[in-house]
Amino acid sequence: MELPGTLATADWEAHRPAVFGAAYRILGTVAEAEDVTQEVWLRAAAADLSEVQDLRAWLVTLAARTSYNVLKSARVRRESYVGPWLPEPLLTGPDAAAQVLMDESVSTAMLVVMETLSPAERVALVLHDVFDFPFSRIAQVLGGTPTASRKHASRARARVAAVKERPRASKVETERVLKAFKAAADAGDMAALVELLHPEAVYVADGGGKVTAARRPVLGAEPVALLAVRQIQLRRPDAFQIIEVNGQPALATYRGGELVWLDTVEIADGRITAFRRLANPEKFAHIGHI
Description:
Radius of gyration: 20 Å
Number of strands: 6
Number of helices: 10
Strand order of the largest sheet: 2-1-6-5-4-3
Low-confidence stretches: none
Shape: elongated
Distance between the termini: 42 Å
Mean pLDDT: 90
Strand content: 15-25%
């Protein structure tokens, strides 16, 4: 039996997805978001909540403030990251372990752009546009004024506008294109790969210095197709499956039961415009193997 003024287990379970969702959107990593969620739980469990009128808002505010501090301390580490940085994938299919409020703000494309924002811009955008917080409350998190918080959110919104304006392929279409790309790469069929790729397609790989991966984006259908074929020949994967991450199908590629790549794509008019390959094993350790 919970004591008056303490956090009831049922209330925590009801609001945990919002807490994790806020932390994940701000930080872009599953591990850090889980750490923040655990810290919020511990602090909330020890707090006197008898005067709290809106528990969800109180918990999300605490998650945002904690995430803001983590993000500021992580900037130097991320700036020295080897090669391109991609967000940690969040399993969102029916078997997902972590619950999160689902919308476009957790898409891989959106999180990639979010990484270019300042910590204050990122927090302001998430709290206002996703959780509908007033700027007066956001200012309390950021330690500034409501006017400054409004400006942070406005600048961030302008940066992410291009992602929201891009057409988003259906899950069925995305899965079809991923499977066709995989089949063509396995067969070394350059013509089929080029046909699947937009002429100005961009390929980004995140190896984090842990495995071999392109240190710079690769541009153009033919260079991307050639790279895809060469990587198959070098790594010789032996299994794959389609899983759902960040709300969209992704291609998980394995060798000897171990996950070696996780590919996500953006598609326009049936062709891949952006191909993102996560190869850093530290970032998909939570997904597991087959």
